[in-house]
Amino acid sequence: MGKWPALNKVEMIEGPIDKKTYEREVTKLQKKLLDIQVHHLHSGGRAIICLDGWDAAGKGGLIERVIYGLEPKSVHVWRIGAPTPEEQGRHHLWRFWERLPARGNWAVFDRTWYGRVLVERIEGFCNNAAWKRAYREINEFERQLTDDGVRLIKLLVHVSADEQKRRMLTRLKKPHKHYKVALEDFRNIAKREEYLKAYDDMLELTDTHHAPWHVIATDNKMHARIKGLKIIIDELSRDLTITDRALDPRIVEAAFEMWGWKPGKK
């Protein structure tokens, strides 16, 4: 590997953190994220937050903390599954072009275009030539996005085999979590070594200057969520100056005419 160690060599142990400290830190980070979103709403900035990784690695929990408190009409979460009949037979990136964010909006992808070099590669849903070619196609796709001004953040959430097993068994024991378990999960878990190789190839071949990968160890969910939020904030706020936006003078005038209010008046 180049920049990245083999995925099964990533350090998974984190120091202790108490619930109160965790909640305080997450709340602070969520407020920062909202400030950045408001700036993007006014400036027309676009962002794409991508999450890939193992089943039960915590993608859903991290996404929940990312979008909590954001202006809901301007952020959309796309949960990517198997392509629909309409999407089948088209280029594998077509369905993602259809989901790109409009001016001022953010898109969050729960699984992404990397399915071509992960599940489609391993399950034989495309031939070898197709998934090998996809690395170049994906790099070109991401280059087009970032050249067009899109902020692109790619997160790979990684969980150890032991912790993944523990979480899956918890889901089986709790009826309200049964919806999170599918037969395909067991097929994927059984092929962990194949997926490790595919993830390593993905990191090696698609970690670029304009669209780098960020690997998050998620055996400790609280540390993982804080780290994920910090990465997203750092990437979205890079080269960004956030200042208080002055009120439109026409709004000030309208408020004065209706209520006698003017700036500085309590």
Gist?
Helices cover 48% and strands 12% of the residues.
How does this structure look, described?
The chain has 266 residues and is of the alpha/beta class. The chain has one domain (7-259): Rossmann fold (3-Layer(aba) Sandwich). The chain is 48% helix and 12% strand. The protein has ten helices and five strands. The protein has helices at residues 19-43, 59-67, 94-97, 119-123, 128-147, 161-173, 183-190, 192-206, 221-237, 249-259, and strands spanning 46-53, 75-79, 106-110, 150-158, 213-217. A five-stranded parallel beta sheet has the order 2-3-1-4-5, with helices on both faces. Helix 3 (94-97) links the parallel strand 2 (75-79) and strand 3 (106-110). Helix 1 runs parallel beside helix 9 and helix 2 (59-67) crosses helix 9 (221-237). The chain is globular. The model has no long low-confidence stretch (mean pLDDT 94).
Name the average pLDDT.
94
> How many separate domains make up the residues?
1
So how many helices? 10
Specify the helix fraction band.
40-55%
The tally of beta strands, per DSSP, is 5
- Give me the side-by-side strand order of the main sheet: 2-3-1-4-5
Q: Helix-strand pattern, N to C?
A: HEHEHEHHEHHHEHH
Give the termini distance in whole angstroms.
61 Å
Shape: globular
CATH architecture classification name: 3-Layer(aba) Sandwich
Overall SS class: alpha/beta
Task: Supply the CATH class.
Answer: Alpha Beta
Looking at CATH, the homologous superfamily is: P-loop containing nucleotide triphosphate hydrolases
Any idea what the radius of gyration is?
21 Å
Main beta sheet strand tally, sense and closure: 5 strands, parallel
Beta-strand share of residues: 5-15%
- Unreliable parts: none
What do we call the CATH topology? Answer: Rossmann fold
